[in-house]
Amino acid sequence: MEQVDLKRLIVVFFAVSLTILAYQYISEYFFKSPKPTQISKTSNVETKEKPNNAIYNYKGGINLLLNGQRQSANVNNGVLLHLKDADVKFSYSGGRIVYYYIKNFKQNLITPQEYALKIFPLEIYTGDSSLDQAINFDNYNISVNKDDVRMTLNLPNIKVEKDIHFDKEGFISHINISLSGYDKPYFVMIGNNLNEEDLHTHQGPVFDINGSVKRLDNGDIKTYKAITGNISFAGEESRFFFQGLKGHINSIQIYKERLGKEDFTLMLASFNGEALMFFGPKEYDWLKKAGLTDVLDFGDFRIVVEPLFKFLYFIYIKTGNWIISIFVLTLIIRILFFPLNYKSTLSMSKLSEVAPKMEKIKEKYKDDPVKMQEEIMKLYKEVGFNPASGCLPILVQIPIFFSLYKVIVITADLKLAHFLWIHDLTQKDPYYILPILMGITMIMSLRLTPNPDPRQNSVMYISSIFFVFLFASFPAALVIYWTINNILSFLQTYLIRKVLLKDKLGAPVKSSKTK
User: Fold this and answer.
1) What tens digit of pLDDT does each residue of 94-134 get?
2) CA 76: distance to chain centroid?
3) Residue 268: helix, strand or coil by DSSP?
4) Distance between CA 466 and CA 17 in Å, rounded?
5) Cα separation of 463 and 451, whole Å?
6) How do strand 204-209 and strand 187-191 relate by DSSP bridges?
7) How far apart, in whole angstroms, are the C-alpha atoms of residue 139 and residue 256?
8) Taking the complete model, does pTM exceed 0.85, yes or no?
9) SS3 sequence, 73-139?
10) Three-state SS at 69
11) Are 357 and 421 a contacting pair, CB within 8 Å?
């Protein structure tokens, strides 16, 4: 049997950690996502950015009327509807949504790109440019009755009606759009996604076609893409927000636009006139209420990430506190891994007991490495020590760690969660206190189960310092999880050594006779 070298295992683990750190910093500094543009709360939002004259040529697509008439339209005049959790403004010009402010998140869902082009949700496109200009730029009559908005426009031979019924919070609404006197298909503008810090999450068009959720990146769309099929929902998403429609959608069209050097997408949808409209944060309760839970991007490891997310959310709903939810999850993980930790602690303790014998073997066979390895392996077998036992409890938690990372970066609710000096658990600790505390808890655990070889201890202490810098840029919720995990691991190991193995660790080790 060949010996498993503990030093090599540590080096491999250290190298993996270094790779993670390098990847994170390379991604952040060389492939950095553009910083989200902050929008003020005022409804009359203007942008200094002007539309680029070099508009993509949409062969076979609809004319989006990106012309002077659009730019001259006055979108500041309109009706502002105050809902419980959102403020929504409809312009008289075109009967369009020109402001959608989410109060808790202090975020306007109408993007700077939309303001620059003056292209907004609820615009209607028939493919007839002259008709579309009238529908989207003429002034509507707008009436409001509590949470209901009705917008009407009378044209020769055609009457346009847009009815929207909001729930009291303002994220979910039921819309009914009709063009009396026009019996051909038409498209309704959904809009553009926010430009948030993505942390490797998807931003752009997302839709469910034939029971399968598809996500498109800018690179997937050359200039224009039309998709037809059984589409149950379609919209634009960012890391924490989604805006789109759910219903019997016949077709969607996605257009790529450019302002300056930045490309972005605009989505239109064709449906029977009735649909559920969702504009808001991707909070699980609201998505579930709207039947849009598939909007949550659980990634390639959905089989692990989704149950983890639902468990955390279940505890959060019961307790109302994300820190308690993280603590309960960590406690359950430590209980499940207790047998593994028990065997690891017992194995490492046995190694400490036979350390003097190991030194004698190394000294005796220093000129015969092969014989030295054989004798060391015999000693390991004699005392029941597994060289991989020290790293195994950490290695088996790595899938959980990365799954939890995914959960944290997609959970909009955590953005509103507070913990002492931290006001957003999806962001890093601004004062780096948590990573330092985490490093201290790692060193505490190492001191409780020191390695007989001082060199190995030095490597582990250096690794702890390295992890402080690694976790400094991680979301605070993830650092809290790892810190709690270290504390529970320390208490668990202390219980094993001082109570459960108190007699066993003190027993002398019997050695076999050597020839």
Assistant:
1) 999 999 999 999 999 999 999 999 999 999 999 999 999 99
2) 34
3) strand
4) 9
5) 14
6) unpaired
7) 28
8) no
9) CCCCCEEEEECCCEEEEEECECCEEEEEEECCCCEECCCHHHHHHCCCCCCEECCCHHHHHHHHHCE
10) helix
11) no
